[in-house]
Amino acid sequence: MQIKKQTKGKALAKAKKLGQKATINLIKEKVLLGRGGAGFPTGTKWEMVYNEPEKEKYLICNADEGEPGTFKDKFILEKNPELVIEGIKIAMFAIGAKKAFIYLRGEYEYLENRLKKLIKKANIEIVVGAGAYICGDETAILESIEGKRGQARLKPPFPTVKGLYGKPTAINNVETLANVPLAIYYKDWNPNLRLYSLSGNVTKPGIYELPLGTKLCDLIKLGKPKNKIKAIYFGCFGGCMPHCEKTKLTPDDICGKDCIHGAGTIIAVDEKHSIVDVATNIAKFYEFESCGKCTPCREGTMRILALLENISLKNADMKDLNTLQELAEVIKETSFCGLGQTSTNHLLTALKYFRKEFEERIKEQKDRRRIR
Predict the structure, then answer these.
(1) Domains in the chain and their CATH numbers?
(2) 341 FRET partner, CA 20 to 30 A, in 21, 86, 224, 247?
(3) pTM, 2 dp
(4) Hey, is 191 helix, strand or coil?
C-alpha cells in the first residue's frame, strides 16, 4: 500500500531545501486534494494561509473522525503515525506556522500517548475531543480547541483568513497530511489512490486502497458479502443508492446519483435488511449529534426521527411520506452548518431510490389494523 511508505524525514528535508513557495507549488502540481470529504486542493489552502500578512499562523490536523463507517484515519494513526507527523511539520513550514494542533477524536484517546512520544521535539499539541460529531466541522473544531462549545461559526471569514484565535489557520485531514511527505518525496506518487472504509453486510470489512475509477462492485467483492447487496451508503451524510455493477468510485459518478463520495466511506446493505430501519437508525444518530444551534436542525432532526419511528413501529399514513420528504428538504436548505445541511441526504436518497420499502411498511400496518 502506498500509505505504508516512509520517507524518514527526507521529505521534510526536501521541503526545507525547496523553500515555502516551492513546497506549496509542488503540492499544487501533484494535485493533492483534501481527503476529509470536501476534496479542496491542499496546496491552494496552504497558499491562502501563506499569503496572509499575519505573522502568527496555525496548522490543525483534524483527527476527529466521527462519520459512521469511517475508520481510515484511525488505521493511519495506528499503523503509520510517523508519516502524519512529518506531514504536519511540512505543512507548518510551508505556511509559516510555529505551532500545530492534533485534534483527536475522544474515542481515539488511546492513541494519545503514542503520538506524544513522536512529537516531543515539535511544537505540536494534542487536543482530545469529547466525542462530538459537530467538531469535524472546520470551524467547530476551532471553537473546541479554544475551549468553547463545539459549534460551527458563520463563514466568511474562512479559517484561512481568521481561524484559531483569530489567526490564519490551515486545517487538514489525517489522510491528507499522511500523503504530503509521499507527494513531495516520491516522483511516482499517485494522487488518484484513495483509502476506502468498507463495512456493513460484508464478511471482510476493513481499509482498502484503490484508485479512483475502480468499479464499486469490485470493492464490494473484496468484502465478500454473504448475501446480495442492494444498497450502498456513503457514510451517513453521503446518502445512499442502489448497488449497481456499472458504478465507478469517482466523485463525479457518485455525485451524479445525488450522493457524496466524501471521505471514501462505503457501508453495504444486503437484501435481508430494511432501508426503513437503516434510515431510522441514522435519524437517531443525527438527532443525538445535533449541536442545537439552529432551529431547522435542532427541531427538524427530532421530527424526522419521530416520523420514521411512526413508520417503523407505530401508525403512519402515506401522507406522512410526503411530510417526511418536505421536512427533509427544508432542513437541508435552511440549516446553519454542514451537519444539518447533510443530515437528511440519507433520507432524501432513500425516498428516491427505495420509496417502495417505505410504502410497503405503511401498507403492512394498515393490513394489520384491518385484520384486528
Answers:
(1) 2-185 (3.40.50.11540), 193-270 (3.10.20.600), 275-371 (1.20.1440.230)
(2) 247
(3) 0.93
(4) coil
